[in-house]
Amino acid sequence: MIIWTLIFLLLVSLSQHISANRSVIVQTKYGDVLGYETDLGRIFYGIPFAQPPIGSLRWNRPVPISKWAPATINATEIPPACPQPACDVHDILCPKTTSEDCLYLNVFTPLQNTSSLLPVMIFIPGGNFQFLDASLVIYEADRFVNTTNVVCVFIQYRLGVLGFLATGTGPNDLKGNYGILDQRLAIAWIKSNIDAFGGDPNQITLFGQSAGAQSTALHYLTSDMQSFFQAAIIESSPMSVPFRTYAEYITPTVLLAEKLNCAIGDLTCFRTASYQDITIAQTAVNSMLTSWKVLFFFEPWLPVIDNMIVHGQLLEMVSNVSFTLKPLIIGTVTEEALGFIYGIWSTPVSPRLYAEIGVAIFGTKFLKIIERYPPERSGDQRSLLARLATQWVFACPTRVFARKTATYSYVFGYPLQTNGTMNSSGCDDHTCHGDELVFLFESFWVNFTDTDRYISQTLATYWTNYAKIILIINSNPLSLHHDCFQTNCKTLRYDLFCNLIYDNPNQLLQSCNGQVYLTFNKIMSQSTPINKLEYNYRSFTYASTTPLCDTIRMKQHIFE
């Protein structure tokens, strides 16, 4: 989720690219690409990797691009976003234009010329599988690639109904997972062509956030995707949100057909509807869906289990994987659900309402959960509800996934320090879903405080160090040089770990004012219990098993 705290930073950050830019041309097997060079890096916007999914290609597998015409494409302008419902946040966070012709990718490369090919990082954006695009200001990564010396690619894929509607497996059915197939084709295109941009096709790291993290996890666990990447990073994946079955798509499909005035199964009618009418109908259907399967509201249109592309829920797939998994970093931020909770409940939640919400969602199992998360006798319980939701949807399933797969896990908890911003989602001075992205991509550098820049440099260094050494046995993102920061209790609310391993895996280490903003754990064993699993560089109590996490781990489907 992109929070209101970022808006002031977004507005000011636009000034970074006002200065005159220089043209740069790259030759590919499909033709030339005209991009531009800033003082920070080289940028190529809107490179097509598939034919436009329009007409008969709507709700079909993406078709690879052929040689483009004209022979040189203009990659200096931001491409249209894929169709999506009306944007309900500040317009600077909304796509400027949308079109079904949206299967494009953006490439960022460093300024320096080198004869050696550079590591490649492919980012899959989030957005609930319904919103956002690859060209947000938050993803302006020219500084990121120039300071870390990697090539970074952002990909777009079909969203919502157009990307994920699924009616069945018959010859006249919509099979679904079109957005995932778009991602696959984009990744394959990058592997085949990134050397023209100075990237190493044999040193690719997939990474994504939120819905993009779910997508990354899916590719990570899919056997026929293993030749396309060497490592992965999964950021803030809501792993408790279940992929759908075809049966679960029946009701949304019926409602959608009614809104489009189409008969069920009349694909001609579906395909002749304008994409604008489809997204309007999608919004209406979203508001009509009623179910106690509350997680369905979180992502109403997402991958379907078809046993060809998606073989089950992520935690089921990781338990049944039959091949050697690649290196992985996985983690969350400290308060993933806070912005969502304040967005749903704009007024205080009383202790009684908190209990009613818990019983409605969890039934009798809430009696055990409330032992761990008891409400206060009075006052607003939204922060407690957010803690519960953070553990349920994000943190607990992430720990379960990490125990089975990860080389490293992390928790990020550094809030934006820049003054002068307004926040309407409860995230002021908190670290909410998506808040690490501005630091990772260094996209608001000119607005950062000195401490912000320290955090930004550190996070970018760890992620890209990991990408650079994935071919080395026992790779360690902490092993490449990065200066440790001196903790100043008066000005610096941060305590950096620097290649330190502590004997006590449950040791609590904090900065001088009692706050820790980044923890990074190396998974030493995949066969030991969670509380013995991690040797901590910096740790706090999130690494211990909680009663709620126990419940989720023992029976993942209890929340259905």
TrEMBL record:
<dbReference type="InterPro" id="IPR019826">
    <property type="entry name" value="Carboxylesterase_B_AS"/>
</dbReference>
<dbReference type="Pfam" id="PF00135">
    <property type="entry name" value="COesterase"/>
</dbReference>
<feature type="signal peptide">
    <location>
        <begin position="1"/>
        <end position="20"/>
    </location>
</feature>
<dbReference type="InterPro" id="IPR002018">
    <property type="entry name" value="CarbesteraseB"/>
</dbReference>
<dbReference type="GO" id="GO:0016787">
    <property type="term" value="F:hydrolase activity"/>
</dbReference>
<dbReference type="InterPro" id="IPR029058">
    <property type="entry name" value="AB_hydrolase_fold"/>
</dbReference>
<protein>
    <recommendedName>
        <fullName>Carboxylic ester hydrolase</fullName>
        <ecNumber>3.1.1.-</ecNumber>
    </recommendedName>
</protein>
<keyword id="KW-0732">Signal</keyword>
<dbReference type="InterPro" id="IPR019819">
    <property type="entry name" value="Carboxylesterase_B_CS"/>
</dbReference>
<keyword id="KW-0378">Hydrolase</keyword>
<feature type="domain" description="Carboxylesterase type B">
    <location>
        <begin position="24"/>
        <end position="468"/>
    </location>
</feature>
<comment type="similarity">
    <text>Belongs to the type-B carboxylesterase/lipase family.</text>
</comment>
